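Sync notes, pocket subgroup
Present: LS, DG
LS reminded everyone that the earlier model was apo-only. Rerun requested with guanosine-5'-monophosphate included. Inputs:
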Amino acid sequence: MKKQDITDIKTLLQSPKKIVIVPHKNPDGDAIGSTLGLYLYLLKYNHEVRVIAPNDYPDFLKWMPSEATVLKYDTQTEASERLIEQAEILFTLDFNALNRTGDMEPVLAKSEAIKIMIDHHQQPDDYALYTYSDVRMSSTCEMVYHFIDMLSDVDKIDADIATCLYTGIMTDTGSFRFSSTTATTHKVIADLIDKGAENAEIHNAIYDTNSYNRLQLLGCTLSNLKVLPEYRTAYITLSQQELNNFDYKKGDTEGFVNYALSLQNIIFAAIFIEDQKQNIIKISLRSKGDFSVNEFSRAHFSGGGHTNAAGGKSDTDLNETVEKFISILPSYKKALNNE
Ligand code: 5GP
Ligand code: MN
């Protein structure tokens, strides 16, 4: 972010403003952590702030500080639209294209608020007056820390803000093991612990709240795992029926695709999850090294994300989607075997 942008934003935030903060649809730990962290920071300057999520998120995020104040656009549409219409500043966090907010897109596009993007995904759109985009960053939560630092306000980070930011850095880095984790990430994490983030408690709240059903669903997922050694690829399918068998709840499949990527010699992994309600197959893609699942998803499955983690969707059924996936692989054979 340019020095001038920071100066402008500092001036902008000097007097109380009406502010709305929006994460992407199906928000994850980084999306909720970054929006709530920024929310709690802005409250300290007496702004009127609200986080509005496009839709609900998993229960394992529902313990986060001030989480209960988050509005959900899909079920609280009128209240959300009123706030967005009145907003003077609109922060968009952890996404970089307005269509990532689903049905909120036209409302956000119409808003005359000053838009500020903070995000670490590839290929940002040009909708914000101020764009803080950095694809090398581990997480949007790490960027919110740097953003607050650029505003010379690291001292304003209290235990609640630290807890929110720690959570998102932890979830987006697979607990600090993905290659996006840098020495700076660890320095930020160290400071967040100093400021009161309870690391062991946060890990427990996010990862150790499995239901019996979720573990059984994981068993089913692992038995559906298929390997295509000639493409160094592994994939998993989950049908709606299988999800129903284990009383699927939002977030239950989080991280499952990583099991496919953990196989020896595998550098490309996919999970295809049937969603009968939306009538789509939701796809998560992961890779190791330079093979870009962002490019792959943009080219074939109407999605995007990062080089090593991306999402997408398909409008055909589960079998056809997998057939399409397998039929595309030969054209990537060289790239997959060069890793
Ligand atoms: P996940 O597979 O965990 O849903 O998402 C992996 C990464 O890709 C996340 O950073 C997420 O924000 C992004 N992502 C997921 N689905 C989509 C999508 O449909 N479009 C785009 N552009 N990004 C996505
Ligand atoms: Mn993120």
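DG: Residues 294 and 306 are 5 Å apart (CA to CA).
LS: The chain has a mean pLDDT of 97.
Action: DG to write up.
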